Amino acid sequence: MRFVDEIDVAIASGKGGDGCVSFHRAKFVPRGGPNGGDGGRGGALVFEATPQRNTLVDYRRNQRYSARNGQPGMGNNKTGAAGEDLVLLVPVGTVITDRNTGEVLADLDREGAQWVMPGGRGGLGNTHFATAQRRTPLFAQDGEEGSEREITMELKLIAEVGLLGYPNAGKSTLLSRISAARPKVASYPFTTLTPSLGVVQLGPGNSFVVADIPGLVDGASEGVGLGHRFLKHLERCALFLHLVSPEEWGGTPTERILALNRELAAYDEELAQRKQLIVLTKIDTLSEAERRHHREALEALGVGPVVELSAVSGAGLDELVRQLWPVVQKHREDERETQPAPSPPHD
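Given the sequence above, the corresponding structure tokens read:
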């Protein structure tokens, strides 16, 4: 399945049904009163987040989505049928924005979260307009129009740990070792063309999600390379693992860390301030003296603690996961404290 993380569509909720003009007609009842029923409510358009979806690709086939209109009222005070709601399932982490105003309409950041665009109210039948002075109202109320919007759906992956690093830094290999994810791994740049998610299991009920973001390069915030397409997926992470390998791809390890942090700051200054762990990978290829040289240089940057590991041999993996877990737990506590109250259910 192709990974699609942004798409524009037009949406509309249903129009309410018109009220009915009707009068009681029966033998031997010459002055039957009004009995026009109300129109039915227009169908609502509902976006709902589900973990069963991980891309927006399904919405490429259709550029417009409309809920059903309500049916008009009928005689004998019969209310028209309500329009059927249209429920659109989207991945958890989908942000819905009004294309014309830029207003963020919804951030569906948890399973079951919904954003509802209600349908139009049904019009009142002529029964409601009868008075002592007006016993035969010859009019009814029109149904209320539904709403229409042009929106952008943008997927921002829900991950608590994001993997940063130049191509071939070892991100995909690390993800495959600490989780059940199986991203493509090869020895050439830009092996990873789409973000990958992996769940790290520490024990019953203890797990967290790691995102492998495609390799960033200098100028990514301005559209160079592939990384600029996926920078937005880092916005929800509690911390970053900044992977650097001893191989000379784009400068020394310290130069690469500084370069990518500049790209983060250019995209979003807050991202550059996010907590980081520096991970020196592929230590199985280094002598002890070389490891010490790189470790001291990386620690001197003051960006964050330095962890050394080899995803191939497994050295350092357990220590890395132990350092990540307390940070993830603290992030979850902070999220719970700031979580808004759930919205009332849709009628």
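Confidence is low (pLDDT under 50) at residues 186-192, 342-347. Try to locate this feature in the token string yourself.
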